Amino acid sequence: MQALYAQLLVGLINGSFYALLSLGLAVIFGMLNIINFAHGALYMMGAFVAYFLLNLGGINYWWALLLAPIIVGIFGMILERTMLQWLTGLDHLYGLLLTFGIALIVQGVFQNYFGSSGLPYAIPDQLRGGMNLGFMFLPIYRGWVVVFSLVVCLATWFLIEKTQLGAYLRAATENPTLVRAFGINVPRMITLTYGLGVGLAALAGVLSAPINQVRPLMGADLIIVVFAVVVIGGMGSIMGSIITGFALGVIEGLTKYFYPEASNTVVFVLMVLVLLVKPTGLTGRAA
Amino acid sequence: MTTLTDDTLRASPRAMRDEMIVFAVMALLLAAVPFTGVYPFFVMQALCFALLACAFNLLIGYGGLLSFGHAMFLGTAGYCSAHALKVWGLPPELGILVGVAAAFVLSIVTGYISIRRQGIYFSMITLALSQLLYFIYLQAPFTHGEDGIQGIPQGHMFGVLDLSKPTVLYYVVLAGFLAGFLLIFRIINSPFGEVLKSIRENEQRAISLGYRTDQYKFLAFVLSGTLAGFAGSLKVFVAQNASLTDVHWSMSGEVVLMTLVGGLGTIFGPVVGAFAIIAMQQYLAGFGQWVTVIQGSIFVICVLTFRRGVIGEIAHYFRRSL
């Protein structure tokens, strides 16, 4: 049973990353009509920024948790201002191709300097060790990742669904021209939205650094799984992305326990099943 | 919304004649390669990728469907042909048939699944499906995992053509490429191809005219996947191995890049793009991961400034479809 709980925990952690990443993809898609292929590369950058902050600047994990998303978010906003904004009005596929190119550049540069092996990132002192829950041993850091991700996801949901800013955002998703006519600076909102989505990815990167090590290709395979998560959940609903992300992480964890050979493929197989039964995705509207 | 291809170009009998002339020039140039001292291995490799890119282009350029998983057909056909040649000891022509048949079956299954969604979702689904196959091949015993299938015998095609001779192999690969290319050319100019283009331009209108657009897209997907598989089977004879690289997502990305550089929805663009990208990889092989960075930069530059691609720009300048 210990092993089952341990795999469930791993599943929940992966689920938090799926949720944070697919959430960002959904927010970006809503505003920019772009599927951000560079999301995995920016997640990786988040982990690397945390690594640089610690090893070059002596800045600890807690500051990295705040600074890395901001730094990567600014980098994302520069990308949006200099490149992505020129794609407005073009076929959606160009956004996919452009961000794929950006992902290749970012990953290639990091691979040149850091190879493909992982760099260690120590768990901060306050989150070391574990506690005995009676039925299982819980490493505190892993518990922290799950709880913190959940809080961030819910905060994002609250921001978009329940605040004034979120209302503008949702309105601009539906009809940018009309929102613009009301005197709201839509291009600036688009830039900030991209920064927000990218910042969420970077945050996931920082969270994963102590668990998975810091590797140039850490986001490359992850983003494909997240795409499958997005296809399953649909991008129409914020809460849908969060729930689907966590749920698929748990299912993957269970698969690792019961049938480890399929743990790499289970999300893709589920995607196929969902497409066969309900082609629009579980929560999605028709594309 | 602007479409993926240049709609200022009109098909006409004269355009068709121009295209045939360009095709004849291309075929003659390629046939002359063994006499020029150019490294035939390079050209053969480029021809396989050119056929793959043409097959991919049939789907994106004429059907408007961006597949981000075309490596799965290349890799699947490659593995199946390699297995048939090495383990079953089949002759080359049957080995190719096994690979193409495998790609045909795979494209029916994956097409049935992925055609259910449009646009951006279609790309994500094909990418996810190819990743699924990647993991299956990583674990399946017959692919030998990370090692791949090595040392594949080339054998005698139809019992007479000795494929271990570079020149013979070259002309067999060239014949395969030209046959595949002509088939795609024929498909594009058939009534089926015209309907496909109309779906790309305006699917709602095509539906209202009574076309079952899903069936057309599905057939285009199967044709494209099967032809991509043919390219994969040919490649087995050139490289004499089949490995995980051929199923990896980065391979799918390279095919997209080749077609984009040459020109989406142009007839000769994918061929030019494939030669350009393979040549670049050849010359920059010593630069390690910088090749990835350069490829990424080409993507960015093409999308931002050069969306018609090399052949697309030329065609646009001369107002001909090429």
From TrEMBL, chain A:
<keyword id="KW-0472">Membrane</keyword>
<feature type="transmembrane region" description="Helical">
    <location>
        <begin position="223"/>
        <end position="251"/>
    </location>
</feature>
<feature type="transmembrane region" description="Helical">
    <location>
        <begin position="34"/>
        <end position="54"/>
    </location>
</feature>
<dbReference type="GO" id="GO:0006865">
    <property type="term" value="P:amino acid transport"/>
</dbReference>
<feature type="transmembrane region" description="Helical">
    <location>
        <begin position="91"/>
        <end position="110"/>
    </location>
</feature>
<keyword id="KW-1003">Cell membrane</keyword>
<dbReference type="GO" id="GO:0005886">
    <property type="term" value="C:plasma membrane"/>
</dbReference>
<dbReference type="InterPro" id="IPR052157">
    <property type="entry name" value="BCAA_transport_permease"/>
</dbReference>
<feature type="transmembrane region" description="Helical">
    <location>
        <begin position="258"/>
        <end position="277"/>
    </location>
</feature>
<dbReference type="GO" id="GO:0022857">
    <property type="term" value="F:transmembrane transporter activity"/>
</dbReference>
<feature type="transmembrane region" description="Helical">
    <location>
        <begin position="190"/>
        <end position="211"/>
    </location>
</feature>
<dbReference type="InterPro" id="IPR001851">
    <property type="entry name" value="ABC_transp_permease"/>
</dbReference>
<comment type="similarity">
    <text>Belongs to the binding-protein-dependent transport system permease family. LivHM subfamily.</text>
</comment>
<keyword id="KW-0813">Transport</keyword>
<dbReference type="Pfam" id="PF02653">
    <property type="entry name" value="BPD_transp_2"/>
</dbReference>
<keyword id="KW-0812">Transmembrane</keyword>
<keyword id="KW-1133">Transmembrane helix</keyword>
<feature type="transmembrane region" description="Helical">
    <location>
        <begin position="6"/>
        <end position="27"/>
    </location>
</feature>
<feature type="transmembrane region" description="Helical">
    <location>
        <begin position="60"/>
        <end position="79"/>
    </location>
</feature>
<feature type="transmembrane region" description="Helical">
    <location>
        <begin position="141"/>
        <end position="160"/>
    </location>
</feature>
<keyword id="KW-0029">Amino-acid transport</keyword>
<protein>
    <submittedName>
        <fullName>Amino acid/amide ABC transporter membrane protein 1 (HAAT family)</fullName>
    </submittedName>
</protein>
